[in-house]
């Protein structure tokens, strides 16, 4: 729910008194999933990178740069705006944790770039992102909803955008890394993509649940109204995705496959919001390599660091002492 009029006295968040059944679960799951980009070794990817054609490299660079932009915005604007607007103090904590992970996602793409690209290529990519009209337009539509939260309805629509972003719009970008990892190429970066997908999937479910809580409080008239607005947004965003997909994936002939994957994930986004599927694309229609890649079991195993999607949190923590702060 949208926060009430600010009262004079502030409340402290009380984790000993939680009024719903899912807050504890989501907090714990977010903590359990925590990971750091620097702990995934990427250098092995250099070998298969050299086997890709120039067109393939170009697609990979562009989709991951595009994802960097979306994660930057979700961490800097989307999650913070929603966290500020919700009333529940536990929800604010969970949303802020998720927002922090968006920055980890965005940063991890830079780790991939620094492994595979020259600094000139990286500079060019970031410039490309800043000037790519479809990416910018997509983000503008999403951000506009984040920036106009003022009551339950606008908060609901901002949450819809957040779910669309994380459960649907990211997937035009995820397709190619998943596809390549399925062919045994760039599997270390694929591991990072899997960790990101694992996060986005819990984010989509959580924000979807918060949205459904608000939806329940609407009158029948309002419910119909926001459902219509939601589908209108979906159609508008899909048109942009379609154009973007054609532009990016045409050179390597994967447009149709990506579009099916996008429709499949758009339906997943609607499901997170408790709504009926719109495209009705069943799993067997989607490229099986990519569907298998969505399964976030570990792909890449490093026996020395034991990191990756089978990520294990360090249990032996060495104590800090004063000398650790001598820089
Ligand atoms: Mn993210
Ligand atoms: Mn997310």
Task: Write a concise synopsis of the structure shown.
With 327 residues, the chain is mostly helical. The chain is built from twelve helices and no strands. The termini are far apart.
What attributes does this structure have?
single chain, mainly alpha, 0% strand, globular, binds manganese (III) ion
Q: Would you kindly provide a written description of the structure presented here, covering whatever features stand out?
A:
It contains twelve helices and no strands. The protein is an all-alpha fold. The longest helix has 32 residues. The termini are far apart.
Classify the beta-strand content into a percent band: under 5%
User: For the residues shown, what is the average pLDDT?
Assistant: 91
**Tally of helical runs:** 12
Secondary structure category? mainly alpha
- C-alpha-based Rg, rounded: 20 Å
State the end-to-end distance.
Answer: 46 Å
State the helicity in percent bands: 55-70%
Low-confidence stretches: 298-308
Global outline: globular
Using DSSP, what is the number of strands? 0
Ligands present? manganese (III) ion
Output the helix-strand order: HHHHHHHHHHHH
Query: Main sheet?
Result: none
């Amino acid at each position: 729910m949208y926060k009430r009029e600010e009262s004079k006295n502030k409340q402290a968040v009380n984790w000993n008194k939680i009024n719903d059944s899912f807050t504890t679960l989501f907090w714990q799951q977010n903590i359990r999933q925590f990971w750091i980009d620097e702990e995934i070794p990427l250098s092995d990817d250099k070998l298969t990178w050299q086997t890709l054609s120039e067109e393939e490299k170009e697609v990979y660079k562009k989709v991951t740069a595009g994802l960097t932009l979306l994660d930057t915005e979700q961490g800097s604007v989307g999650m913070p705006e929603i966290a500020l607007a919700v009333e529940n103090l536990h929800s604010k904590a969970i949303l802020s944790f998720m927002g922090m992970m968006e920055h980890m996602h965005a940063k991890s793409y830079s780790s991939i770039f620094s492994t595979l690209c020259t600094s000139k290529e990286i500079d060019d990519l970031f410039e490309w992102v800043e000037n790519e009209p479809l990416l910018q337009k997509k983000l503008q539509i999403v951000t506009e909803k984040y920036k106009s939260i003022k009551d339950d309805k606008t908060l609901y629509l901002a949450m819809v955008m957040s779910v669309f972003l994380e459960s649907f719009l990211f997937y035009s970008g995820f397709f190619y890394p998943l596809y390549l990892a399925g062919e045994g190429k760039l599997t270390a970066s694929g591991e990072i993509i899997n960790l990101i997908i694992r996060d986005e999937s819990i984010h989509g479910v959580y924000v979807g649940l918060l949205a459904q809580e608000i939806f329940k409080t609407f009158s029948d008239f309002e419910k119909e109204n926001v459902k219509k607005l939601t589908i209108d947004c979906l159609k508008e965003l899909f048109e942009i995705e379609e154009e973007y997909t054609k532009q990016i994936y045409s050179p390597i002939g994967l447009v149709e496959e990506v579009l099916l994957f996008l429709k499949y994930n758009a339906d997943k986004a609607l499901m997170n919001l408790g709504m009926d599927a719109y495209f009705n694309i069943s799993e067997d229609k989607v490229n099986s390599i990519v569907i298998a890649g969505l399964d976030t079991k570990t792909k890449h195993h490093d026996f020395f660091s034991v990191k990756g999607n089978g990520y294990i949190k360090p249990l032996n923590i060495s104590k800090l002492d004063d000398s650790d702060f001598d820089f």
